[in-house]
Design goal:
Length: 451
């Protein structure tokens, strides 16, 4: 049995759903279908998940939400209309669920946002099951609650509870049946809706692949492969045919938005291969992500990822390496302010602490810097807000002498400075810190040097 996940781009409108149904029908192994909410139909379109976030904002503000509800329902209505099916009952049910959202009491704004935004997937899975049944398929809507998926953690960045896997293993699917499961959302033990972080339908697919013991996790999107570089940065970059779990994890973490970085973890635990494929070109082989890759390619680098979501705190103090407890006190300050750090490369007198800045407000940043300055008295302290990370990843980089100079020399020739270089514990990647305004140029220079 395969778990097959379709992203929002594959479900944006009726003509896309028609392709999706043809893909599901083409292989009887495709029995567990995970769906996202309808995504963008054209460049400046708005994803249904983002429309739901606007609906949540308007509900919080006490505004009239009739227009936004109509806009959301219209997306679903257009999809049913494409198939010439009777819309009355299904659209009535979905409209009711959407309207009810603003009448419920939530324990916090975070739970409110999670419930509103999770409905993009919840409504879409019901609609798709309805359309498929209308076309004669034996399709059934199954909620994450029916599957026994229970989450903990924060409402908008939930984590699956390990005991969910025992319940999933007992879930029965009939031999000729297709189940349609909404991605992105799940429920807490108290029955509250929570979501994984944005793009989290990939995570649902991975959890189901592990929990239902799938042979393959197929992830359908709008590109024919995972490319060596984000195609927004380089036109027609090289396609990756096979990559290892480790390579995908590192590349996804640092900006390969095509597959969620947390989604690799459940499949690693269950050793299930992933096939990333294109809904618009389903016969193309796509990219296989496998437990271990044979390194046959003479090229050591598999991919280059970059992300500007970071900030860095640079500290300089002579004899920092000799001072007992310096790092400990910094970590205590961060913990006190509820801030986690991503990396902390250090030298004899210097240290750079890299943060995911999406978790830090201006007030938190000021408080942390003030406290470090007062308690640790560094000679120099600098907050670098426009920090980007580039990750150069490849199993073939392991133990390869000269890999660094192949990259560093052309970067320096191009006038790109590297405030941070970290070869770290992972033998298969090189992490480079650059100023955000230089990041795309740096990626292009590295790509030209190694591909
Ligand atoms: N290295 C990469 N290879 C392929 N696509 C990438 C890469 N990096 C970023 N992307 C982007 O990821 C997009 C697919 O991810 P996403 O928009 O989340 O799809 P979906 O709607 O299917 O979930 C592609 O359209 C592409 O623009
Ligand atoms: N719809 C959610 C979850 C998701 O995975 O979407 P997509 O498959 O379109 O990336 C989001 O926009 O975050």
């Amino acid at each position: 049995m395969n778990v097959i996940k379709f992203g929002g781009s594959s479900l944006a409108e009726g003509s896309q759903l028609e392709k999706v149904i043809a893909i599901i029908s083409a292989d009887t192994a495709r029995q567990v279908v995970v769906v996202s909410a309808p995504g963008k139909r054209f460049k400046d379109d708005i994803k249904v998940t983002d429309l739901l976030a606007s609906y949540a904002e308007q509900a919080i503000a006490g505004d009239d939400t009739v227009a936004i509800q109509a806009e959301i329902i219209n997306r679903y209505r257009q999809i049913v209309a494409y198939f010439n099916l009777d819309e009355t009952e299904i659209i009535g049910t979905l409209s009711e669920q959407l309207a009810k959202l603003s009448r419920v009491h939530y324990p916090s704004f975070d739970y409110l946002y999670a419930a509103f935004m999770g409905h993009g997937e919840l409504l879409n899975a019901q609609l798709i099951a309805y359309v498929m049944r209308g076309l004669g398929h034996n399709a059934r809507f199954v909620s994450p609650a029916d599957l026994g998926m229970i989450v903990t953690g924060t409402p908008r960045a939930a984590r699956i509870r390990e005991d969910s896997y025992t319940r999933l293993a007992n879930f029965q699917i009939a031999a000729d049946e297709i189940i349609i499961v909404p991605g992105f959302l799940a429920y807490t033990n108290e029955g509250l809706m929570a979501t994984f972080s944005r793009g989290g339908s990939d995570i649902t697919g991975a959890i189901l692949a592990r929990g239902l013991h799938a042979d393959l996790y197929e992830n359908f999107t709008d590109v024919s492969a995972i490319y060596a570089v984000d195609p927004h940065i380089i036109d027609h970059p090289a396609a990756i045919t096979t990559m290892s779990y480790r390579e995908m994890r590192e590349l996804a973490y640092a900006g390969f938005a095509v597959f969620h970085d947390e989604a690799i973890i459940p499949v690693i635990e269950a050793n299930i291969p992933i096939n990333v494929k294109n809904t618009n070109n389903p016969t193309a082989p796509g990219t296989m992500i496998v437990p271990v890759k044979q390194v046959t390619n003479p090229r050591p680098v598999t991919g280059i990822a970059s992300d500007t979501r970071f900030a860095a705190l640079y500290l300089h103090r002579y004899l920092l390496n000799k001072e007992v407890g310096f790092t400990l006190r910094i970590l205590e300050i961060l913990a006190k302010h509820g801030v986690s750090y991503e990396h902390m490369p250090s030298g004899i007198d210097d240290m750079t602490i890299i943060f995911d800045k999406t978790q830090i407000t201006d007030a938190m940043r000021d408080a942390i810097c003030d406290e470090i300055q007062t308690t640790l008295e560094p000679d120099h302290l600098e907050w670098i807000d426009d920090f980007a990370i580039i990750m150069v990843v490849g199993e073939g980089m392991n133990n390869r002498i000269g890999a660094f100079s192949e990259i560093a020399t052309p970067l320096s020739d191009a006038g790109i400075t590297l405030p941070m270089i970290n070869q770290g514990a992972s033998q298969i990647s090189l992490m480079l810190g650059v100023r955000a305004e230089q990041v795309d140029d740096a990626v292009r220079v590295i790509y030209d040097a190694v591909f």
